[in-house]
């Protein structure tokens, strides 16, 4: 996934990420298992970790695990694969488990994660159209040609006044 050919940039501050992750938690209330809340949250590393922490805090879920997926590599033609699985005894087939990621783009990451935990509920903060069908709950849709910049990948910097720029 390359951010260079994207037409638009959507820059997300920590403050906005916090608000959007809370909005996701709000949306998730009432969608959990009938016998109470989710048993565990599984964050998709690394981008899902901060959103998962905020959602777990809001929904009062204390058990949090991770899954690491290595993305598709055009050079090697290999499909995405799981580098680190969550505790099998904890997650089982995903029943009662909430999977959290920052966004879905093509949906390839979630395809692999869903195959590992088919009965889990999948939530992301942002979703692009191509991958939207892989997500059960999300907050904001952005167009496919938008690159989302997350606060952990950015820094505050000086910007020239409008009249100083050409
Ligand atoms: O829907 P897809 O096209 O699969 O893309 C979405 C995934 O890509 C990014 O993660 P990345 O693999 O770049 O790793 P990171 O979370 O460690 O930044 C993002 O955090 C999602 O997990
Ligand atoms: O729009 C994006 N932003 C950050 N990481 C990503 N990984 C796939 N798409 C994106
Ligand atoms: Mg990721």
Automatic annotation (TrEMBL):
<feature type="binding site">
    <location>
        <position position="102"/>
    </location>
    <ligand>
        <name>Mg(2+)</name>
    </ligand>
</feature>
<dbReference type="GO" id="GO:0052657">
    <property type="term" value="F:guanine phosphoribosyltransferase activity"/>
</dbReference>
<dbReference type="GO" id="GO:0032265">
    <property type="term" value="P:XMP salvage"/>
</dbReference>
<dbReference type="GO" id="GO:0005886">
    <property type="term" value="C:plasma membrane"/>
</dbReference>
<protein>
    <recommendedName>
        <fullName>Xanthine-guanine phosphoribosyltransferase</fullName>
        <ecNumber>2.4.2.22</ecNumber>
    </recommendedName>
</protein>
<feature type="binding site">
    <location>
        <begin position="147"/>
        <end position="148"/>
    </location>
    <ligand>
        <name>GMP</name>
    </ligand>
</feature>
<keyword id="KW-0328">Glycosyltransferase</keyword>
<feature type="binding site">
    <location>
        <position position="105"/>
    </location>
    <ligand>
        <name>xanthine</name>
    </ligand>
</feature>
<feature type="binding site">
    <location>
        <position position="148"/>
    </location>
    <ligand>
        <name>guanine</name>
    </ligand>
</feature>
<dbReference type="InterPro" id="IPR000836">
    <property type="entry name" value="PRTase_dom"/>
</dbReference>
<dbReference type="GO" id="GO:0000287">
    <property type="term" value="F:magnesium ion binding"/>
</dbReference>
<comment type="function">
    <text>Purine salvage pathway enzyme that catalyzes the transfer of the ribosyl-5-phosphate group from 5-phospho-alpha-D-ribose 1-diphosphate (PRPP) to the N9 position of the 6-oxopurines guanine and xanthine to form the corresponding ribonucleotides GMP (guanosine 5'-monophosphate) and XMP (xanthosine 5'-monophosphate), with the release of PPi. To a lesser extent, also acts on hypoxanthine.</text>
</comment>
<feature type="binding site">
    <location>
        <begin position="46"/>
        <end position="47"/>
    </location>
    <ligand>
        <name>5-phospho-alpha-D-ribose 1-diphosphate</name>
    </ligand>
</feature>
<dbReference type="GO" id="GO:0004422">
    <property type="term" value="F:hypoxanthine phosphoribosyltransferase activity"/>
</dbReference>
<keyword id="KW-0460">Magnesium</keyword>
<feature type="binding site">
    <location>
        <position position="148"/>
    </location>
    <ligand>
        <name>xanthine</name>
    </ligand>
</feature>
<dbReference type="GO" id="GO:0032263">
    <property type="term" value="P:GMP salvage"/>
</dbReference>
<feature type="binding site">
    <location>
        <begin position="105"/>
        <end position="109"/>
    </location>
    <ligand>
        <name>GMP</name>
    </ligand>
</feature>
<dbReference type="InterPro" id="IPR029057">
    <property type="entry name" value="PRTase-like"/>
</dbReference>
<dbReference type="Pfam" id="PF00156">
    <property type="entry name" value="Pribosyltran"/>
</dbReference>
<comment type="subunit">
    <text>Homotetramer.</text>
</comment>
<dbReference type="GO" id="GO:0006166">
    <property type="term" value="P:purine ribonucleoside salvage"/>
</dbReference>
<keyword id="KW-0808">Transferase</keyword>
<feature type="domain" description="Phosphoribosyltransferase">
    <location>
        <begin position="13"/>
        <end position="158"/>
    </location>
</feature>
<keyword id="KW-0660">Purine salvage</keyword>
<dbReference type="GO" id="GO:0000310">
    <property type="term" value="F:xanthine phosphoribosyltransferase activity"/>
</dbReference>
<feature type="binding site">
    <location>
        <position position="105"/>
    </location>
    <ligand>
        <name>guanine</name>
    </ligand>
</feature>
<comment type="similarity">
    <text>Belongs to the purine/pyrimidine phosphoribosyltransferase family. XGPT subfamily.</text>
</comment>
<keyword id="KW-1003">Cell membrane</keyword>
<keyword id="KW-0472">Membrane</keyword>
<feature type="binding site">
    <location>
        <begin position="101"/>
        <end position="109"/>
    </location>
    <ligand>
        <name>5-phospho-alpha-D-ribose 1-diphosphate</name>
    </ligand>
</feature>
<comment type="pathway">
    <text>Purine metabolism; XMP biosynthesis via salvage pathway; XMP from xanthine: step 1/1.</text>
</comment>
<comment type="pathway">
    <text>Purine metabolism; GMP biosynthesis via salvage pathway; GMP from guanine: step 1/1.</text>
</comment>
<keyword id="KW-0479">Metal-binding</keyword>
<dbReference type="InterPro" id="IPR023747">
    <property type="entry name" value="Xanthine_Guanine_PRibTrfase"/>
</dbReference>
């Amino acid at each position: 996934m390359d951010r260079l050919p994207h037409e638009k940039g959507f820059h997300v501050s920590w403050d906005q990420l916090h608000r959007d992750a809370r909005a996701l938690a709000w949306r998730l209330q009432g969608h959990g298992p009938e016998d109470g809340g989710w048993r565990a949250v599984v964050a998709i590393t690394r981008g899902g970790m901060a959103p998962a922490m905020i959602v777990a805090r809001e929904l009062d879920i204390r058990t949090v695990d991770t899954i690491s997926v290595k993305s598709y590599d055009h050079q090697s033609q290999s499909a995405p694969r799981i580098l680190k699985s969550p505790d099998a005894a904890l997650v089982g087939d995903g029943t009662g488990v909430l999977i959290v990621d920052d966004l879905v783009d093509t949906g390839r990451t979630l395809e692999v994660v869903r195959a590992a935990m088919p009965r889990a509920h999948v939530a992301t903060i942002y979703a692009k159209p191509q991958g939207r069908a892989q997500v059960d709950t999300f907050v904001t849709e952005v167009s496919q040609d938008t690159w989302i910049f997350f606060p952990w990948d950015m820094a505050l910097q000086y910007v020239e006044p409008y009249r100083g720029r050409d």
